[in-house]
Amino acid sequence: MPHLTSTDIAGRIEDLYGAPLADLEVHAQDQPPGMLSALLGMHDTLALAERSIDFHRDHLTRLIHPERQIGPHEVSHLLDGTRRLAEAVAIREIQAKSIAAVLQSLARAPAPTPASPTPSPTPSPPAPAAPLAAQSVAHSR
Fold first, then answer.
1. What Å distances lie between residue 23 and 8, 27, 77, CA to CA?
2. Residue 18: DSSP 8-state
């Protein structure tokens, strides 16, 4: 599976729901929790992990600058920064794989086709009602 960034994921969510991410976030606030709010939450976590990676990478780069001396005090900062960078990378990888798998399992529902307005000479009797399926508690998109 290719490495996906939060920008790639945002585009896939927008394609799936047919609206810009900002509009989807506003819409999700007014809805009960569902797939959209879950996807948006996963996207936010992924974006936060990416920002954290950038921050800790830049911090480590400053700490190991060639003109800077590394003493015992700096070593603890290097170790802490390295640990935090590794955590952010792990979170990003897990979130990217999880959200990509969820998005891959979803497909945009096709637009309903309009009924043809051609009148029939004799109206057909209504079809018998299909038996009701067990209602699921889970919300759809």
1. 17, 6, 41
2. T
Q: How many CB atoms lie within 10 A of CB 39?
A: 24
Q: Look up residue 136 and give its two tokens.
A: 């699921």
Nearest 5°: the CA angle 76, 79, 85 is: 140
Q: Which residues contact 63 (CB under 8 A, 6 or more apart)?
A: 70, 74, 77, 78, 81
Is residue 102 exposed (0-12), middle (13-18) or buried (19+ Cβ within 10 Å)?
middle
Q: Supply the DSSP symbol for 64.
A: T
Per residue in 55-99, pLDDT tens? Answer: 999 999 998 988 888 888 889 999 999 999 999 999 999 999 999
The conformational region for residue 18 under phi > 0 = left, psi -120 to 50 = alpha, else beta, is left
- CA diameter of the chain: 93
What CA–CA distance (Å, rounded) separates 41 from 4? 16
Reported residue count of the chain is 141
